[in-house]
Design brief:
Distance between the termini of chain A: 9 Å
Strand order of the largest sheet of chain A: 15-12-14-13-17-18-16
Domain FAD-binding PCMH-type (chains A, B): 36-215
Structural class of chain A: alpha+beta
Oligomer: homodimer
Pfam family, one (chains A, B): FAD_binding_4
GO molecular function (chains A, B): FAD binding; oxidoreductase activity
Cofactor (chains A, B): FAD
Strand content of chain A: 15-25%
Shape of chain A: globular
Family (chains A, B): Belongs to the FAD-binding oxidoreductase/transferase type 4 family.
Helix content of chain A: 25-40%
Number of helices of chain A: 15
CATH class of the domain at 94-214 in chain A: Alpha Beta
Chain lengths: 464, 464
């Protein structure tokens, strides 16, 4: 497929010096961290809201797919242009338009990097809670599109809890605003949260008003090691049942520990499982808060409880945790990385069930993640070159999802659905819920030009 | 209008001992705290989800309006059956189905009173943050329908930030679930938040999974009095710009103080304005937190800063604040009670502008409310029996809304739109946003039977 000549001309006029149509250039905007790939017909780099309006209208006229792209760090193929068309990369629309601490909000363009925003906010004593592991490289627009969270969500919430309002362009080419500049609002339906997590299938976000939170003055990083995974999972449950909420409560299973130790050395223990815990708060109160979490962490199977001695040790612990995902990629380049979520009290059953599934299908599974939210990154280290594993992988993955759903969990905590999980959506959602989502999609994007083939099972393929 | 005979028969079969059709009985389900009134043709009292499904399907067959009702405490006429039809009062569907502290959620039926849930949670060390002033009398279902918040929202958020999932029945008669049992989820569009604040126009909520928050161990109540309103408003801005977020930051203007003093005696000072501030946290840290707020509260115009001496004084202060709305009702039975919201830094401009509007239209205006969210209850004490005031009231109200919108605010912070503000919605929302809301409404309720004449300007009148 290639672009209609009229559209190609319009893109040239709209995006002087901000248009790629050659094959080599297009290639690098056709993949993301899912290892899926497809060729777009063109890549454009909008810098202003008005350009985005004109872009959507131009694509709509030619019924050409239009895929919004942040920085391509997502793991589900949500930005892969499976039906060709135009990729709109927001990397050049990256201004922080306003930081207003008196009103606790910031207004940003979608291409602002999460880490750049945090760096701008820190000297002012504020932060924006969502902090994906890819924070230095991922964009706010992508965070919003996928409802991406990160470790701090256990205490501070995901983008849906931390966004006040949006400016956007629907698939109809119409521009609109949703939400407020205030921390409260009850003026009509909540379109802000509807767009967050919609993976660019309803509208393109061109501006976001983000709710800011004061930075806690002090933080302590702790690690608790356990004899086995079940003891660690039970400790997570106890920690979340008491009043002091950690600002991170990360879990690593034995395999993840082995891997992290290889990266970080002896700071990572040999154990059945480890919790990496961060507690923040007022300086004077922090010791009492740490004590409260320590009491809850104690119990059967606890091997060691240890506070990071200094900033260097904190750095090392987090670096080891953050290295896990790339490290697994190097072991198993085609690993399947899920981010299932279950109620925290069901974590022992989840972890036990995953062991059985791994054994049954003879596919190694490594688990780590945001245990305080019950959000576990389940890594199926399958090697497609092994015919037995290749044959077993689909059933193995289906068994993982069936387990999660049986435990009152859901398919994704923070990665979204994208390309790779859409066929599983009907297992997680009842038919009426799914049909309502389809009908909502049809209102925002009746021609199905926005990110076709994503999120919804038969989600609006463009009629090009 | 009266019910079709077939529908009347169905209701009798569906709701034995739970159906009212006589005039006297219907009358008391035809009004709410808006002082608007209309007659329903029948009132039913569902107790089970399946009854609600059958009820919606029966009403749909006859194209008969169906109005969900909690306890009628809302101030916008959101439950007034302006097109007749059936009122479904959820007062008997009031079981707390599950409290799960390990997973920090509670599952409730919509008729559970907010206060009853709080009472059940307190011994377990948890609470559900939304706490409207009417908490002992209002239902969770009503709180969700209107996104009702209350003082604690300044620190802990509104229902949209504190609800994990819903079970509901759309206007199509189809039942569905939205959301999760987990604190994180990225599996499709966010229908949970879409239903919250939709005032029963999209679906009837039959079950809610609410996110619980640990109770802070200690709390301190403080009052700061100021020489004038502008000084108090500036203090609110300073308090919200520093890191310690109070769990209540209430504002009373001079008129509200006079009124509160009449109710509560000398504990309420004579002053230009007062802030009632609550700070919660760990026992040991509380003095430092109070100091931080005190530093921010200090400044031009501060007359007195005082901590409540004991529980009795706390009780008195809050009783005086909570008595304001009913007290104003006794002075001006037909008062117009708005709950506008502006960014907190714009509060001085709002309060100044309201003074000018009050003077221009010769209608007394009393202001109090949740200043930490910029959410002010603006009470127009107009007397319809005064011809000049009656003539001026509509323009006066329009001027209030124009002021609020010019300050980047919105029409409602927590009361919703209902019957009384729907004509103003096009001032607050751009035409595309409004059209998208209409199209969403049409998907959930194509026949327009759910709460016709509410929220949206021409929001789906039933075609009966």
């Amino acid at each position: 497929m290639s672009l209609a000549a009229s559209l190609a001309g319009e893109l040239e006029a709209l995006f002087p010096d901000a248009l790629i149509t050659d094959r080599a250039g297009c290639l690098v905007y056709g993949y993301d961290n899912s290892r899926r790939q497809a060729m777009p017909d063109a890549v454009v780099f909008p810098q202003r809201h008005e350009q985005v309006v004109a872009l959507v209208q131009a694509c709509l006229r030619e019924r050409t797919p239009l895929i919004a792209r942040g920085r391509g760090t997502n793991t589900t193929g949500a930005t892969v242009p499976v039906a060709g068309g135009v990729v709109a990369s927001f990397e050049r629309m990256n201004r922080i338009l306003r930081i207003d601490t008196a009103n606790r909000f910031a207004v940003v363009e979608p291409g602002v990097l999460n880490g750049d925003l945090q760096a701008a906010l820190k000297p002012l004593g504020f932060f924006w809670p969502p902090d994906p592991t890819s924070s230095p490289y991922c964009s706010i627009g992508g965070n919003l599109a996928c409802n991406s969270a990160g470790p701090r969500a256990v205490k501070y919430g995901s983008p849906r809890e931390n966004t006040l309002g949006l400016r956007a362009v629907a698939g109809t080419g119409e521009e609109f605003r949703a939400g407020y500049y205030t921390s409260k609002g009850a003026t009509g339906y909540d379109l802000t949260r509807l767009l967050i997590g919609a993976e660019g299938t309803l509208a393109l976000i061109t501006e976001a008003t983000l709710k800011l939170t004061p930075l806690a003055p002090a933080k302590r990083v702790l690690r608790a090691t356990y004899a086995d995974i079940e003891s660690a999972a039970a400790a997570v449950s106890r920690i979340m049942a008491q009043p002091v909420t950690p600002c991170a409560l990360e879990f690593l299973d034995d395999e993840a520990l082995r891997l992290a130790r290889r990266h970080a050395g002896e700071i990572i223990p040999v154990a059945g499982a480890m919790l990496l815990i961060e507690v923040d708060g007022e300086t004077d109160f922090l010791p009492a808060a740490v004590d409260a979490v320590a009491r809850a962490a104690a119990g059967d199977g606890l091997l060691e409880w240890r506070a990071a001695a200094d900033a260097a040790e904190v750095e090392q612990l987090w670096a080891a945790r953050k290295a896990l995902s790339p490290a697994l990629r190097s072991i198993a380049p085609m690993k399947i990385n899920e981010d299932v979520v279950v109620p925290v009290s069901r974590l022992p059953e989840l972890i036990g069930g995953l062991k059985r599934i791994s054994h049954k299908y003879a596919i190694p599974i490594v688990n780590f993640g945001h245990a305080g939210n019950g959000n576990i990154h389940v890594n199926l280290l399958y090697r497609p070159e092994d015919p037995a594993q290749a044959a077993a992988a689909p059933d193995c993955l289906a068994a993982v999802f069936d387990l999660v759903l049986a435990l009152d969990g859901t398919l994704s905590g923070e990665h979204g659905i994208g390309l790779v999980k859409r066929e599983f959506l009907p297992r997680a959602l009842d038919p009426v819920t799914l049909a309502l989502m389809q009908r909502i999609k049809a209102q925002f994007d009746p021609a199905g030009i926005l990110n076709p083939g994503k999120l919804l099972p038969d989600g609006g393929t463009a009629h090009a």
